[in-house]
Specification:
The complex is a heterodimer of chains A (93) and B (140). Chain A is mainly α and 93 residues long. Chain A has 3 helices and no strands. The radius of gyration of chain A is 24 Å and the shape is elongated. In chain B, strand 4, helix 7 and strand 5 form a beta-alpha-beta unit. The chains are: A mainly alpha (93), B alpha/beta (140).
Chain lengths: 93, 140
């Protein structure tokens, strides 16, 4: 049994690009649309959670990792050495 | 395409007004998969300041099909290889070895030890600015 379908009207320019994509990939234009919708849905969850984390950090007064790029790099290098030394170094002697 | 993002870039994208580091993070999705070792996740969370921030960080990965944290230890012989490739600090060698082990095409980092000293054909090391320039030019 085939899935229910709904007709959609697209601007000609959009349809032309969609048809080009489908032709390049040798698939039906519907498959291209389905893939793009799936990708957008997945990306939306990531963006929503990323935004929530940034807002949480801002509400909490930011991170205390230094102001410049160089200061952040140095801070993170020190953090790496500390964690690696404590939890990983014994695996790589 | 699969990439690895270093903790310094992650932190700048999350907690600082760095438009390119943030934009890089927003690109993660089916077209640009992210894979990081547990070590990088630990480095980021060590510099978050509340339990809710840490929960939110892990939620990013739990609810994504395009971003992954790998727990398994990197093979020791690969770490040794990256020590020989000029990453004398084993912690840095671990990250380089991870990028090769995971078949990452790019390691995105601001760490000068990666940017200037690492010489490998297994992946490229770029900062976020250069990666985005190439992304926008379709030249990655």
């Amino acid at each position: 049994m085939s899935a229910a379908t709904i007709p959609v009207q697209l601007p000609a320019e959009v349809y032309t690009k969609l048809a080009q994509l489908a032709a390049e990939e040798q698939v039906d234009p519907v498959d291209v649309v389905a893939r793009l919708v799936d990708a957008a849905t997945q990306n939306r969850a990531w963006l929503r959670n990323l935004s929530a984390l940034r807002e949480q950090i801002e509400r909490d007064g930011g991170l205390h990792v230094g102001a410049s790029r160089e200061e952040v790099v140095e801070r993170m290098r020190q953090t790496r050495q500390d964690i690696f030394g404590a939890e990983y170094a014994h695996l790589y002697r | 395409m699969r990439i690895c993002i270093d903790s310094c870039v992650f932190i700048r994208g999350l907690g600082q007004d760095d438009p390119n580091a943030l934009r890089l993070l927003t690109l993660i999705g089916p077209e640009l998969a992210l894979v990081i070792p547990r070590l990088i996740a630990q480095e980021v969370t060590r510099n978050l300041v509340t339990p809710e921030q840490v929960r939110q960080f892990y939620r990013l990965f739990h609810e994504s099909d395009s971003a992954f944290i790998v727990d398994e230890p990197v093979p020791a012989e690969l770490v040794a290889k990256y020590v020989d490739l000029n990453l004398r600090q084993k912690a840095d060698a671990f990250i380089g070895a991870f990028a090769e082990w995971m078949d990452s095409r790019y390691l995105i980092s601001d760490n000068r030890h990666f940017l200037r000293e690492l010489n490998t054909s297994s992946f490229s090391v770029l900062d976020a600015d250069e990666f985005l320039k190439r992304w926008d030019n379709d030249s990655l």
